[in-house]
């Protein structure tokens, strides 16, 4: 699945790594993903949230993405790849806390 790249506008933004986050009281499903554009080489980190609460048939999706320096992209990608699809606890990467206001382990 490709997404529109916010920099070059081409639908060439690919998810390179993804892991589910530990359950959060606010969201039913939440993942952290790294993305890379095959067109302009933009790299970023995306937090994807999905909630099925509220009215019947209502589903709320939320994507929050940040373009990050290559070093941060690589660090988060390694973190996600090492998690085996699921981060059982708050990730140990302080930059994520700065980017997303996320709880991170020290
Ligand atoms: Zn691009």
What does this entry look like structurally?
With 106 residues, the protein is an alpha+beta fold. Helices cover 19% and strands 34% of the residues. It contains 2 helices and 5 strands. It has helices spanning 70-82, 94-100; strands at 2-3, 13-20, 29-37, 43-51, 60-67. The chain has a 5-stranded antiparallel β-sheet with strand order 1-2-3-4-5, covered by helices on one side. β4 and β5 (60-67) form a beta hairpin. The longest helix has 13 residues, at 70-82. It is globular and about 40 Å long. Zinc ion (ZN) is lined by residues 5, 7-8, 10, 37, 39-40, 42.
Low-confidence stretches: none
| Overall body shape | globular
- Into which percent range does the helicity of residues fall? 10-25%
Q: Mean of the pLDDT scores?
A: 87
Structural class: alpha+beta
């Amino acid at each position: 699945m490709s997404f529109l790249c916010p920099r070059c506008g081409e639908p060439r933004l690919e998810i390179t790594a993804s892991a589910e986050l530990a359950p959060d009281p606010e969201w039913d499903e939440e993942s952290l993903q790294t993305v890379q554009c095959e067109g302009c080489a933009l790299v970023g980190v995306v937090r994807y949230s999905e909630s099925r609460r509220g009215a019947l048939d209502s589903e709320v999706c939320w994507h929050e993405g940040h373009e990050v320096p290559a070093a941060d992209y690589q660090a988060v990608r390694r973190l996600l790849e090492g998690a085996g699809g699921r981060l059982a606890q708050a990730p140990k990467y302080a930059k994520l806390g700065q980017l997303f206001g996320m709880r991170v382990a020290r």
